[in-house]
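Lab notebook, design round three. We kept the backbone fixed and only want residue identities now. Task for the bench partner: fill in a sequence for the structure below.
Input structure tokens:
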């Protein structure tokens, strides 16, 4: 009875794995061959066996041999690497496009119908193209199971594409050190059958029930989706920015244009901090670490965030 072959996680797995195994095989072969030769020479030409050193003045044939063979091996490795890499840069014209944004310290995925998520949802057996954008520093999107990695450089257009071959959930990391909370910049790729993906894609009721489930629930969802909790803790611990525990209604000492002043953390302060994060810096924290979310969050979103912050001050 023959077992059914499990499909690869993406269409690039075979090419990358083949290239890796070829290079690894060549490395192991020479590691073993050179080590064995060295050990042989140690015993064969030790002083008791060869008391008088033999002078060698060169060998043209040997020089040619160890020039030609490594050249051939390098070209073999280049060939397998190239045939695995080249298709990664040629996305199909009908690929399903998702805008993928990296910022300190979270991922955000924007779909053509307006949906935004912090998890990448993709359909099975369909070409998916990720338009990559870094908002602040260099990030690097890495999906190990898909054998894909691409750096995101601010101001530079880049893309990544793949065809998912197996339903499941796969890790997605940032592999370029991008600051204090770099290690928390991870999420998942969820591969779904086309019919299930279509139902998820057209669903516009995803947050409607959260409003009545718990006070501030929608605001909590918004801050999680936008990566706010990577910099602001909810338990009083100090991260990149002030903790939100007990923050709303508190009087803070801030630095405004180089001068100290006291401000009450109210709705106006929160709105201004989200739109202009470097205008009033809480004493003890650094400026320039937060970008403006003016184009990412609506006034309604910010109002929901404020409702959530109020629950942390009760």
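Proposed sequence:
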């Amino acid at each position: 009875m023959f077992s059914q072959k499990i499909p690869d996680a993406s269409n690039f797995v075979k090419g990358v794995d083949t290239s890796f195994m070829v290079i690894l095989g060549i490395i192991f072969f020479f590691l073993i061959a050179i080590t064995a030769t060295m050990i042989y020479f140690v015993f064969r030409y030790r002083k008791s066996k060869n008391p008088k050193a033999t002078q060698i003045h060169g060998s043209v044939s040997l020089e040619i041999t160890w020039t030609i063979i490594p050249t051939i091996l390098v070209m073999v490795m280049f060939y397998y690497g190239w045939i695995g890499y080249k298709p990664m840069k040629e996305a199909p014209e009908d690929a399903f496009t998702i805008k993928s944004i990296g910022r300190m310290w979270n991922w955000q995925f924007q779909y053509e119908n307006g949906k935004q998520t912090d998890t990448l949802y993709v359909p099975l057996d369909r070409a998916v193209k990720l338009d990559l954008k870094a908002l602040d520093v260099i990030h690097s999107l890495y999906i190990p199971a898909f054998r894909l990695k691409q750096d995101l450089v601010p101001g530079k257009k880049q893309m990544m594409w793949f065809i998912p071959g197996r339903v499941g959930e796969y890790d997605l990391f940032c592999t370029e050190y991008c600051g204090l909370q770099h290690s928390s910049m991870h999420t998942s790729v969820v591969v779904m059958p086309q019919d299930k993906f279509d139902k998820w894609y057209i669903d516009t009721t995803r947050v409607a029930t959260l409003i009545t489930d718990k006070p501030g629930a929608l605001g909590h969802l918004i801050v999680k989706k936008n990566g706010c909790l990577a910099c602001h803790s909810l338990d009083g611990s100090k991260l990149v920015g002030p903790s939100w525990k007990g923050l709303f209604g508190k009087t803070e000492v801030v630095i405004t244009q180089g001068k100290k002043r006291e401000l009450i953390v109210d709705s106006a302060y929160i709105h201004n901090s989200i739109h202009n994060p470097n205008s009033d810096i809480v004493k003890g924290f650094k400026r320039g670490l937060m970008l403006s979310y003016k184009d990412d969050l609506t006034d309604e979103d910010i109002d929901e965030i404020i409702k959530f912050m109020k629950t942390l001050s009760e």
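Keep this in mind before ordering anything: The radius of gyration is 28 Å.
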